[in-house]
Design brief:
Length: 360
Protein backbone atom coordinates (compact mmCIF):
# COMPACT_ATOMS: atom_id res chain seq x y z
CA UNK A 1 0.00 0.00 0.00
CA UNK A 2 1.29 3.43 -0.91
CA UNK A 3 -0.10 6.94 -1.01
CA UNK A 4 1.41 7.35 -4.47
CA UNK A 5 3.11 5.10 -7.03
CA UNK A 6 5.60 5.64 -9.83
CA UNK A 7 2.79 6.52 -12.26
CA UNK A 8 1.45 9.23 -9.97
CA UNK A 9 2.89 12.31 -11.62
CA UNK A 10 -0.21 14.46 -12.10
CA UNK A 11 -0.01 17.32 -9.59
CA UNK A 12 -3.38 18.16 -8.04
CA UNK A 13 -4.56 20.81 -5.60
CA UNK A 14 -7.04 19.73 -2.97
CA UNK A 15 -8.15 19.90 0.63
CA UNK A 16 -7.44 17.24 3.24
CA UNK A 17 -7.69 16.38 6.91
CA UNK A 18 -4.23 15.61 8.30
CA UNK A 19 -5.23 14.24 11.71
CA UNK A 20 -8.22 13.40 13.91
CA UNK A 21 -8.89 17.07 14.64
CA UNK A 22 -10.76 16.88 11.34
CA UNK A 23 -9.59 20.32 10.24
CA UNK A 24 -9.55 20.56 6.46
CA UNK A 25 -6.49 22.30 5.00
CA UNK A 26 -5.03 22.82 1.52
CA UNK A 27 -3.13 19.79 0.24
CA UNK A 28 -1.11 19.32 -2.93
CA UNK A 29 -0.65 15.71 -4.02
CA UNK A 30 -0.12 13.45 -7.03
CA UNK A 31 -2.70 11.43 -8.91
CA UNK A 32 -2.03 8.71 -11.46
CA UNK A 33 -1.68 9.68 -15.09
CA UNK A 34 -4.70 8.92 -17.26
CA UNK A 35 -4.62 5.19 -18.14
CA UNK A 36 -6.29 3.28 -20.94
CA UNK A 37 -9.46 2.78 -18.86
CA UNK A 38 -9.47 6.21 -17.26
CA UNK A 39 -11.04 9.58 -17.73
CA UNK A 40 -9.49 12.66 -16.17
CA UNK A 41 -12.12 15.04 -14.83
CA UNK A 42 -11.92 18.70 -13.94
CA UNK A 43 -13.95 18.80 -10.72
CA UNK A 44 -16.51 21.58 -10.64
CA UNK A 45 -18.56 20.68 -7.58
CA UNK A 46 -18.36 18.22 -4.72
CA UNK A 47 -21.00 17.55 -2.09
CA UNK A 48 -20.19 17.31 1.60
CA UNK A 49 -21.53 14.13 3.17
CA UNK A 50 -21.72 13.27 6.87
CA UNK A 51 -19.42 10.36 5.96
CA UNK A 52 -16.75 12.95 5.14
CA UNK A 53 -16.98 14.24 8.69
CA UNK A 54 -16.65 10.72 10.13
CA UNK A 55 -13.52 10.06 8.06
CA UNK A 56 -11.98 13.47 8.71
CA UNK A 57 -12.22 12.91 12.46
CA UNK A 58 -11.41 9.17 12.26
CA UNK A 59 -14.64 8.40 14.12
CA UNK A 60 -14.73 4.92 12.60
CA UNK A 61 -11.06 4.23 13.35
CA UNK A 62 -10.11 3.44 9.73
CA UNK A 63 -8.90 6.77 8.32
CA UNK A 64 -5.60 6.84 6.44
CA UNK A 65 -4.22 10.36 6.77
CA UNK A 66 -4.00 12.66 5.00
CA UNK A 67 -7.54 11.99 3.77
CA UNK A 68 -9.10 13.92 0.88
CA UNK A 69 -12.87 13.42 1.30
CA UNK A 70 -15.61 13.75 -1.29
CA UNK A 71 -17.75 11.17 -3.11
CA UNK A 72 -20.42 13.38 -4.68
CA UNK A 73 -18.45 14.76 -7.61
CA UNK A 74 -19.50 16.51 -10.80
CA UNK A 75 -17.23 17.88 -13.48
CA UNK A 76 -16.18 17.78 -17.12
CA UNK A 77 -13.93 15.29 -18.87
CA UNK A 78 -10.57 16.73 -19.94
CA UNK A 79 -8.77 13.52 -20.96
CA UNK A 80 -9.96 10.10 -22.19
CA UNK A 81 -8.16 6.74 -22.24
CA UNK A 82 -8.30 4.58 -25.36
CA UNK A 83 -10.75 2.12 -23.76
CA UNK A 84 -12.99 4.85 -22.36
CA UNK A 85 -14.45 6.03 -25.66
CA UNK A 86 -18.00 6.17 -24.31
CA UNK A 87 -16.94 9.53 -22.84
CA UNK A 88 -15.76 12.50 -24.87
CA UNK A 89 -13.71 15.51 -23.85
CA UNK A 90 -16.09 18.10 -22.46
CA UNK A 91 -18.68 15.56 -21.32
CA UNK A 92 -20.59 16.40 -18.12
CA UNK A 93 -19.99 13.52 -15.73
CA UNK A 94 -20.30 12.40 -12.14
CA UNK A 95 -18.36 10.17 -9.77
CA UNK A 96 -19.90 8.68 -6.65
CA UNK A 97 -18.69 6.32 -3.95
CA UNK A 98 -17.11 3.61 -6.06
CA UNK A 99 -13.55 3.66 -7.38
CA UNK A 100 -12.91 -0.04 -8.05
CA UNK A 101 -14.23 -3.58 -7.66
CA UNK A 102 -13.06 -6.99 -8.84
CA UNK A 103 -15.09 -6.84 -12.10
CA UNK A 104 -15.19 -10.66 -12.11
CA UNK A 105 -17.61 -11.85 -9.44
CA UNK A 106 -21.33 -12.54 -9.73
CA UNK A 107 -22.18 -9.23 -8.14
CA UNK A 108 -20.01 -7.19 -10.50
CA UNK A 109 -21.49 -9.05 -13.47
CA UNK A 110 -24.96 -8.06 -12.23
CA UNK A 111 -23.95 -4.40 -11.79
CA UNK A 112 -24.00 -4.69 -8.02
CA UNK A 113 -20.39 -3.59 -7.69
CA UNK A 114 -21.30 -1.85 -4.46
CA UNK A 115 -21.61 -5.26 -2.75
CA UNK A 116 -18.41 -6.76 -4.21
CA UNK A 117 -16.01 -8.04 -1.53
CA UNK A 118 -13.19 -6.15 -3.23
CA UNK A 119 -15.08 -2.89 -3.73
CA UNK A 120 -13.02 0.21 -2.94
CA UNK A 121 -14.31 3.68 -2.21
CA UNK A 122 -13.50 6.91 -4.02
CA UNK A 123 -11.52 8.05 -1.00
CA UNK A 124 -9.73 6.25 1.82
CA UNK A 125 -9.71 3.10 -0.28
CA UNK A 126 -6.97 1.09 -1.96
CA UNK A 127 -6.96 1.26 -5.76
CA UNK A 128 -5.79 -1.55 -8.05
CA UNK A 129 -2.27 -0.09 -8.19
CA UNK A 130 -1.97 -0.20 -4.40
CA UNK A 131 -2.34 3.55 -3.89
CA UNK A 132 -4.70 5.23 -1.45
CA UNK A 133 -7.67 6.84 -3.16
CA UNK A 134 -8.32 10.56 -2.78
CA UNK A 135 -11.76 12.08 -3.22
CA UNK A 136 -13.43 15.07 -4.77
CA UNK A 137 -12.21 17.85 -2.50
CA UNK A 138 -9.72 18.56 -5.29
CA UNK A 139 -9.56 20.29 -8.64
CA UNK A 140 -8.95 17.13 -10.69
CA UNK A 141 -9.81 13.45 -10.30
CA UNK A 142 -8.80 10.46 -12.43
CA UNK A 143 -11.45 7.73 -12.50
CA UNK A 144 -11.90 4.39 -14.22
CA UNK A 145 -14.63 5.00 -16.80
CA UNK A 146 -16.65 2.04 -15.51
CA UNK A 147 -17.36 4.03 -12.33
CA UNK A 148 -18.36 7.28 -14.06
CA UNK A 149 -21.86 8.36 -15.12
CA UNK A 150 -23.21 10.95 -17.53
CA UNK A 151 -25.03 14.01 -16.19
CA UNK A 152 -28.15 15.07 -18.17
CA UNK A 153 -27.74 18.41 -19.89
CA UNK A 154 -30.75 19.98 -18.18
CA UNK A 155 -29.51 19.42 -14.62
CA UNK A 156 -27.33 22.04 -12.86
CA UNK A 157 -23.98 20.61 -11.84
CA UNK A 158 -24.07 21.96 -8.27
CA UNK A 159 -27.43 20.66 -7.07
CA UNK A 160 -27.01 17.37 -8.92
CA UNK A 161 -23.74 16.51 -7.15
CA UNK A 162 -25.28 14.94 -4.00
CA UNK A 163 -27.36 12.63 -6.19
CA UNK A 164 -24.14 10.65 -6.77
CA UNK A 165 -24.55 9.38 -3.21
CA UNK A 166 -27.84 10.36 -1.57
CA UNK A 167 -29.79 10.01 -4.79
CA UNK A 168 -28.77 6.47 -5.64
CA UNK A 169 -28.84 5.44 -1.97
CA UNK A 170 -32.58 6.09 -1.86
CA UNK A 171 -33.26 5.16 -5.50
CA UNK A 172 -31.89 1.61 -5.31
CA UNK A 173 -34.19 0.37 -2.52
CA UNK A 174 -37.18 1.97 -4.23
CA UNK A 175 -36.32 0.13 -7.43
CA UNK A 176 -35.51 -3.14 -5.65
CA UNK A 177 -38.84 -3.14 -3.82
CA UNK A 178 -41.21 -2.48 -6.68
CA UNK A 179 -41.70 1.24 -6.20
CA UNK A 180 -40.50 2.10 -9.69
CA UNK A 181 -43.00 1.71 -12.54
CA UNK A 182 -45.91 0.82 -10.24
CA UNK A 183 -47.58 4.10 -9.21
CA UNK A 184 -50.32 4.46 -6.63
CA UNK A 185 -48.65 2.87 -3.61
CA UNK A 186 -48.46 4.37 -0.15
CA UNK A 187 -44.89 5.13 0.82
CA UNK A 188 -43.41 6.37 4.08
CA UNK A 189 -40.17 8.31 4.49
CA UNK A 190 -38.64 8.43 7.96
CA UNK A 191 -36.50 11.54 8.43
CA UNK A 192 -36.42 14.68 6.32
CA UNK A 193 -32.72 15.31 5.85
CA UNK A 194 -30.30 14.89 2.95
CA UNK A 195 -31.57 11.41 2.09
CA UNK A 196 -35.19 11.92 3.10
CA UNK A 197 -35.90 15.03 1.04
CA UNK A 198 -34.70 13.27 -2.12
CA UNK A 199 -36.78 10.20 -1.25
CA UNK A 200 -39.89 12.40 -1.07
CA UNK A 201 -39.10 13.86 -4.49
CA UNK A 202 -38.61 10.39 -5.98
CA UNK A 203 -41.78 9.05 -4.39
CA UNK A 204 -43.89 11.85 -5.84
CA UNK A 205 -42.21 11.66 -9.25
CA UNK A 206 -42.93 7.93 -9.37
CA UNK A 207 -46.61 8.50 -8.63
CA UNK A 208 -46.92 7.43 -4.99
CA UNK A 209 -48.77 8.78 -1.97
CA UNK A 210 -45.94 9.91 0.31
CA UNK A 211 -46.08 10.25 4.09
CA UNK A 212 -43.17 11.82 5.98
CA UNK A 213 -42.41 10.72 9.55
CA UNK A 214 -40.35 13.07 11.70
CA UNK A 215 -39.77 13.88 15.35
CA UNK A 216 -39.93 17.58 14.45
CA UNK A 217 -43.47 19.00 13.97
CA UNK A 218 -41.93 22.12 12.45
CA UNK A 219 -40.93 20.14 9.37
CA UNK A 220 -44.53 19.57 8.26
CA UNK A 221 -44.71 22.81 6.29
CA UNK A 222 -41.49 21.97 4.49
CA UNK A 223 -42.53 18.39 3.77
CA UNK A 224 -45.99 19.16 2.45
CA UNK A 225 -45.75 22.75 1.26
CA UNK A 226 -42.46 22.66 -0.58
CA UNK A 227 -41.56 19.02 -1.23
CA UNK A 228 -45.08 17.87 -2.01
CA UNK A 229 -45.57 15.15 0.60
CA UNK A 230 -49.21 14.10 1.00
CA UNK A 231 -49.20 13.44 4.74
CA UNK A 232 -47.03 14.10 7.78
CA UNK A 233 -46.80 12.13 11.01
CA UNK A 234 -45.00 13.30 14.13
CA UNK A 235 -43.43 10.02 15.20
CA UNK A 236 -43.51 10.98 18.89
CA UNK A 237 -47.27 11.63 18.74
CA UNK A 238 -48.97 8.39 19.78
CA UNK A 239 -52.36 9.46 18.41
CA UNK A 240 -50.96 10.20 14.96
CA UNK A 241 -48.99 6.96 14.94
CA UNK A 242 -52.09 5.01 15.97
CA UNK A 243 -54.14 6.65 13.21
CA UNK A 244 -51.53 5.61 10.67
CA UNK A 245 -51.42 1.91 11.57
CA UNK A 246 -51.42 -0.53 8.63
CA UNK A 247 -51.63 2.30 6.09
CA UNK A 248 -48.31 2.07 4.20
CA UNK A 249 -47.02 -0.39 1.61
CA UNK A 250 -43.36 0.56 1.94
CA UNK A 251 -41.22 2.62 4.32
CA UNK A 252 -37.73 4.01 3.71
CA UNK A 253 -35.95 4.79 6.98
CA UNK A 254 -33.20 7.37 6.43
CA UNK A 255 -32.46 8.20 10.08
CA UNK A 256 -28.90 7.72 11.33
CA UNK A 257 -29.72 8.14 15.02
CA UNK A 258 -30.57 5.24 17.29
CA UNK A 259 -34.32 4.56 17.37
CA UNK A 260 -36.85 1.76 17.66
CA UNK A 261 -38.27 0.23 14.49
CA UNK A 262 -41.25 -1.25 16.36
CA UNK A 263 -43.66 1.72 16.18
CA UNK A 264 -42.64 2.44 12.59
CA UNK A 265 -43.29 -1.16 11.54
CA UNK A 266 -46.85 -0.90 12.85
CA UNK A 267 -47.52 1.64 10.09
CA UNK A 268 -46.95 -1.01 7.43
CA UNK A 269 -49.73 -3.03 5.92
CA UNK A 270 -49.58 -6.82 6.20
CA UNK A 271 -46.65 -8.04 4.08
CA UNK A 272 -45.16 -4.53 3.92
CA UNK A 273 -41.44 -3.78 3.78
CA UNK A 274 -39.21 -1.37 5.67
CA UNK A 275 -35.76 -0.62 4.26
CA UNK A 276 -33.17 1.17 6.36
CA UNK A 277 -30.44 3.20 4.71
CA UNK A 278 -29.31 5.17 7.76
CA UNK A 279 -26.26 4.09 9.74
CA UNK A 280 -26.72 4.69 13.48
CA UNK A 281 -23.62 4.17 15.62
CA UNK A 282 -25.67 1.97 17.99
CA UNK A 283 -27.94 -1.00 17.15
CA UNK A 284 -31.52 -0.35 16.16
CA UNK A 285 -34.28 -1.75 18.38
CA UNK A 286 -36.24 -4.38 16.44
CA UNK A 287 -39.07 -6.04 18.40
CA UNK A 288 -40.39 -9.29 16.96
CA UNK A 289 -44.17 -8.84 17.41
CA UNK A 290 -44.66 -6.19 14.68
CA UNK A 291 -42.82 -8.54 12.30
CA UNK A 292 -44.68 -11.70 13.28
CA UNK A 293 -48.20 -10.25 13.41
CA UNK A 294 -47.82 -8.28 10.20
CA UNK A 295 -45.70 -10.66 8.08
CA UNK A 296 -43.47 -7.66 7.57
CA UNK A 297 -39.89 -7.50 6.30
CA UNK A 298 -36.95 -5.36 7.35
CA UNK A 299 -34.09 -4.94 4.91
CA UNK A 300 -30.96 -2.86 4.57
CA UNK A 301 -29.53 -1.14 1.52
CA UNK A 302 -26.38 0.81 0.71
CA UNK A 303 -25.40 3.03 -2.17
CA UNK A 304 -26.28 1.59 -5.57
CA UNK A 305 -24.23 0.04 -8.36
CA UNK A 306 -23.31 1.81 -11.55
CA UNK A 307 -26.31 0.69 -13.58
CA UNK A 308 -28.67 2.01 -10.91
CA UNK A 309 -26.68 5.23 -10.64
CA UNK A 310 -26.98 5.98 -14.35
CA UNK A 311 -30.66 5.01 -14.40
CA UNK A 312 -31.29 7.24 -11.40
CA UNK A 313 -29.48 10.14 -13.02
CA UNK A 314 -31.43 9.75 -16.27
CA UNK A 315 -34.73 9.70 -14.37
CA UNK A 316 -33.67 12.82 -12.49
CA UNK A 317 -33.10 14.46 -15.84
CA UNK A 318 -36.55 13.34 -17.02
CA UNK A 319 -38.34 14.57 -13.88
CA UNK A 320 -36.01 17.54 -13.23
CA UNK A 321 -35.07 16.24 -9.78
CA UNK A 322 -32.13 17.78 -7.94
CA UNK A 323 -31.04 18.14 -4.33
CA UNK A 324 -31.68 21.23 -2.25
CA UNK A 325 -28.20 22.58 -1.60
CA UNK A 326 -26.20 25.38 -0.08
CA UNK A 327 -23.17 26.09 -2.27
CA UNK A 328 -19.99 27.16 -0.49
CA UNK A 329 -16.44 28.14 -1.44
CA UNK A 330 -13.53 25.87 -0.47
CA UNK A 331 -12.27 28.28 2.17
CA UNK A 332 -15.45 27.72 4.20
CA UNK A 333 -15.33 23.91 4.30
CA UNK A 334 -14.50 23.82 8.01
CA UNK A 335 -17.40 26.11 8.88
CA UNK A 336 -19.68 23.89 6.82
CA UNK A 337 -18.37 20.80 8.61
CA UNK A 338 -19.12 22.40 11.97
CA UNK A 339 -22.65 23.22 10.86
CA UNK A 340 -23.10 19.73 9.43
CA UNK A 341 -22.19 18.23 12.80
CA UNK A 342 -25.09 20.26 14.25
CA UNK A 343 -27.44 19.31 11.39
CA UNK A 344 -27.54 22.98 10.43
CA UNK A 345 -28.01 22.53 6.68
CA UNK A 346 -30.96 22.23 4.35
CA UNK A 347 -30.22 19.79 2.92
CA UNK A 348 -26.68 19.37 1.54
CA UNK A 349 -23.55 21.49 1.37
CA UNK A 350 -21.85 21.53 -2.02
CA UNK A 351 -18.35 22.92 -2.55
CA UNK A 352 -17.78 25.08 -5.60
CA UNK A 353 -14.31 23.70 -6.19
CA UNK A 354 -13.32 26.59 -8.44
CA UNK A 355 -14.32 28.96 -5.64
CA UNK A 356 -16.85 30.74 -7.83
CA UNK A 357 -20.50 30.40 -6.81
CA UNK A 358 -22.44 29.79 -10.01
CA UNK A 359 -24.42 27.19 -11.93
CA UNK A 360 -22.81 25.53 -14.92
Amino acid sequence: MAQETQNHTLSVSGWAAYDSSGEIKPYTFKRRENGVNDVTIEVLYCGICHTDLHYAKNEWGITMYPVVPGHEITGVVIKVGCNAGKFKIGARVGVGCLAASCLKCELCADSQENYCDQMQFTYNGIFWDGSITYGGYSNVIVADYRYVVRIPENLPMDSVAPLLFVGVTVFSPLKDNGMLGSPGKKMGVVGLGGLGHVAVKFGKAFGHHVTVLSTFPSKETEAKGRLGADDFIVSTNSQQMQAGKRSLDFILDTVSAQHSLGPILELLKVDGTLVTVGAPDKPLELPSFPLIFGKRSVKGSMTGGMRDTQEMMDLCGKHNITCDVEVIAPDTINEAMDRLAKNDVRYRFVIDIAGKISNI
